[in-house]
Amino acid sequence: MKFTIPTTILLLASSVFATLHATNSSRDLSISVDNADDTPGSAGDWTVIVDNDDPRSLSEMIQEMGIDQTRLKYVYNNTAFKGFAGSLSTKHISKMSIMSGISTFERDQKIKLSDVQTNAPWGLQRVSQGGAIPNPPQDSAGIAAFDFKYQFEGQTAGLGKNVDIYVIDTGVNVKHIDFDGRASFLFAFDGVDADEEGHGYDSLGVL
Hints:
Alpha-Beta Plaits; single chain
């Protein structure tokens, strides 16, 4: 293939520019790592997964990152994947960003479940809140059309707080561990404070 002189010069200039650009980028990254905060835990908690095909051992890679392995919370070294989790410095994260052999690294996040279920069963809204339902419907048609809401704030300890449920049934085992001491007898028609049929216990367990 033949090139004219202007084309050759243009290609050569592009090659030099690309080489200089790559060199400057590597230098900038190196400077960034050198100046990064090396305070333990300054970057927060991270989970790191390394490439299984990398010839280095996990311990060698951790050492190359400059991480004190005794400070790690978890080390994963099994047939499925290799990696670790722990509090890392900003310098560690900067180092990993230019290292080979790193599959992924991600900062740990706290997730809280909080949601509102619309058009929920009326009983679910009532037993999950302390106060009465505002302006409740008074007939079956109104109940069917009413938009009951069940709100979950992410903590099961608050569900049903300050709510009293009264059940007329065959009785209940108030000492059962699932009731956590919250169940009690009010009155027994036969004078027996027990559930000899089992149906009352089942009903209360559902509630």
